[in-house]
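dumping this here before i forget
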Amino acid sequence: MKISRLLIFVFLIGPYFLLAQTKEVLFTIDNHSYYTDEFVRVYNKNLDLVKDDSQKDLDKYLDLFLGYKLKVEKANKIGLQYGTNYQNELKSYRNQLSKNYVNDSKVTNELINEAYDRMQQEVRASHILVLLDEGASPEDTLKAYNKILAIKKRLDAGEDFITVAKLTSEDPSVKENNGDLGYFSAFRMVYPFENAAYKTAVGQVSMPFRTRFGYHIVKVVDKRNNRGEVTVAHIMIVKNGDEAQNEKAKSTIEDIYKKIKQGESFETLAQQFSEDKSSAPKGGVLQRFGSGQLSSEEFENVAFNLKLKNEISEPFQSQFGWHIVKLIEKHPVRSLDEMKLELEEKIKKDERSLLITNSLAKKLRSKYSLSKDVKLLSKVKGAVTEEFYSQTWDAKEKSIEIKGDVLTINKDRKISVVQFMSYIAGKQKSNIKTKPISRLVDELFEKFIDDQLIAYYNDNLENEFPDFKNIMDEYRDGLLLFDLMEKEIWNRAKNDTLGLNEYFKSNVDKYQWKKRYDVDILSSTDMNVIKKAQKLLKKGKSIEYIKEQLNKDGKVNVMSKSGLHEEDYDILSEYKGLEKGVTSIVSKDKYYFVVNVSDEKPAGAKQLSECRGKVISDYQQFLENHWVDELKKEFTIQINNDVFSRIKTQLNK
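structure:
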């Protein structure tokens, strides 16, 4: 599923609460009726998402909802619902969503306990992978399996795991990590991989096993108590391939560390100097994380090795740059009671859910009525031959002579004998050895019944669960709307060069630079130091010279940053009427600042190249706003105002 498609579902997020009401027609679009229950549900589920009370205005919301449905009508009108990608993605989402509705409490609780027990430990493992698609042919599967067996024999013969991994593993990351996956806990790997890792002893190599990625062999390197999660803040100076720049980065982080040791605020220094733009405004604070969740083991180890709250690390280097880390809080593994609901949700989204789904079949046998055609089943037993065991049995050839329905579920789902015989043929590759043939067919028929019951149950989830139907209807509309917007608005805004230029020219007042200054900004916590810096600036001394003169005896007394900025940038907003030259000294947040203005650029219009992304976004919105007006003319709309008045009264209570 394209993640970006999720962004279109403005209506489709969050919990909702239905009002007790009679379902009535709210409006029609070309005789297609839309009802009050959907409008109320969608309105209520979005109340928590809007901050502006004006967005809760029901008249405006009705217009917004109507516009949304007009776009869906347009998508259907031009046939987007028949698109192959649309159909595949809708089917994929339904399959994914249906897992949340296939549940067995006993199996679920067993899986919760197993996951929690595993979360007490972290496993460090290396692996060797032989890639294989989930839907691979029997020939390709056998080829991959033989390859992994050959690799296992080499390991059993005493060859070094890392050497063999580098030579044979088809995991692209092996070139960088030699197959080492670092430490992980439950839910960090696909379930079959997790099982193999936790069931293999330290220092041992697993038997080959399969996941959706292919065949694996795992070597468990270590097991340790789970370190839990940690919240830290950091200051980062980015490094690059240039040696001189890297030395400068190292020097900068060391200067920052000295200022911290001098008692200056970690958070303020992070805001001023950290080059991690996402965390710097928050004083360097990162989202909490556990082992294996970051792409830098060095960073994780430093963070977890800090013991005391507010403890600060020395500068250290990762593959991304130089860091200083401050411990905010440690989060130990919570109790089972505290984690139970969270674990259940994770299980529903994990491969473990397949175990729950399969256990459901037993319950469905008592829920639904089953009718078997014993005579047809007897004919099938006569049609299946010993060729099954050599995987040469041809179901098509044998099924020509046998017609009818071998199974009926709930009197409305009839499954033909051809379907069952095709199922048998497909099981040849499973290398089943059950004999005699009659027993084999009975065994496969019971499994076939389970599969058909689950399929029937899945196909009827819309009838079993109203909320499932609502989610699927909304997702279906959302996918259509995404495809329509991409076709009619987004691609047009990106590719319509003439239209974009015309829009930019007509709205150039929206895209203006404020007055800008090319500046060097010097800061210090010591007024005397900043006064000295000011004098040196007035004498025309360089930033490097000033820092060399004022940062002595291992102390960093002054820091600097330079660039072209608008007049309200950072400390520049404290000055009125900036001019070329050295400014007066100002103070802010216990720091003193002086600015050297080397050049100024007047306020004026931006070039399209300087704000293209913003202009495209605005142009898209412009096109969409006018497009809805066009759709209102294209379709016949009738709003039932009496019904809407009653809905407003209900919702405003």
